[in-house]
Amino acid sequence: MEHLLGQEWEIVPAGGATGEAFIAQHDQQRLFLKRNSSPFLAVLSAEGIVPKLVWTKRLENGDVISAQQWLSGRVLEPSEMNGLRVARLLQKIHQSEPLLGMLKRLGKSPLLPEELLKLLEEELDLEVRNLPVILTSMNFLKKELTNVYCEEMVVCHCDVNHNNWLMTDTNELYLIDWDGAMIADPAIDLGMLLYWYIPENAWQDWVRLYGIELTDQLTLRMKWYVITQTITSIQFYKTKNRLEEMEKAILHLKRIV
Fold first, then answer.
1. What gap in Å lies between CA 133 and CA 253, rounded to an integer?
2. Angstrom distances, CA of residue 120 to CA of 29, 134, 138
3. Under CATH, which number does the domain 72-109+154-184+201-212 receive?
4. What is the average pLDDT score of the chain?
5. What is the pTM of this model?
6. What is the pLDDT of residue 163?
7. Active-site option among 63, 159, 169, 205
8. Buried-most residue among 62, 65, 242, 257 (CB within 10 A)?
9. Which long-range CB contacts under 8 A does 44-51 form with residues at least 24 apart?
10. Has domain 2-70 been given CATH number 1.10.10.10?
11. Which positions fall inside the Aminoglycoside phosphotransferase domain (predicted)?
12. 184-194 mean pLDDT
């Protein structure tokens, strides 16, 4: 990395699950570096959804390094997720034709409900599969499968956790960490956000901030996708032997179904 910027730059790991992200600093200048980030990053930057992309460079080994503007700020608090700016930024993402066009050019095809259900059934081990709440949930997913189709397929972030929303010191809002982006039903993002952060009696108001009405069909689709996401989390925590988090996810699933 050092030869890209010069010996005067200090480069340290930025943490994260992949180990492919770094922070570079020289005097008062800081950059966020990432190895082999998707070309999708350039469109996200141009749309103002992530901090500005400064440059990309290809190394001799074929790796591509991207450098983004480093912005001082903080992640949103859970209580801030009900704000107008979150709703409007998510609406902008879901309505973006450049984002959708780029994911299609990168070979992404829409994630359909039956594909998601098939993947879910394949990943569950026997112990998780036989939990009573999982049996109930899987029956619900199969029963409602034909009722959750959506004509509108958009770019979904697929992990709208409050830790992925960055508010800068200059009051700019960004949604970061796009590694899991898909073309899918917007209910994937909406359901996760509403179930995690918004009291149910405020859903209608929040959805209006986003720009639509809360219909029975949207409510069903959000429930369907949140159940699939929660089951996936239960299996993930079990596989990683994070049993306390697994139990919390099971309790969350019981409240949903």
1. 7
2. 45, 11, 9
3. 1.10.510.10
4. 92
5. 0.90
6. 95
7. 159
8. 65
9. 44/99, 44/178, 46/98, 47/92, 47/96, 47/98, 47/99, 49/89, 49/92, 49/93, 49/96, 49/99, 49/174, 49/175, 50/174, 50/175, 50/176, 50/178, 51/166, 51/174, 51/176
10. no
11. 14-213
12. 98
- List, for residues 80-94, the tens digit of each pLDDT value: 999 999 999 999 999
Statement: residue 18 has pLDDT above 60: no
Tokens at 216, concatenated: 């029975």
C-alpha distance from residue 176 to each of 43, 49, 158, 247 (Å): 13, 8, 11, 28
* Residues present in the chain in total: 257
Distance of CA 36 to the CA centre of its chain: 18
| Tokens 């998707």 belong to residue | 38
- Domain boundaries for CATH 1.10.510.10 within the chain: 72-109+154-184+201-212
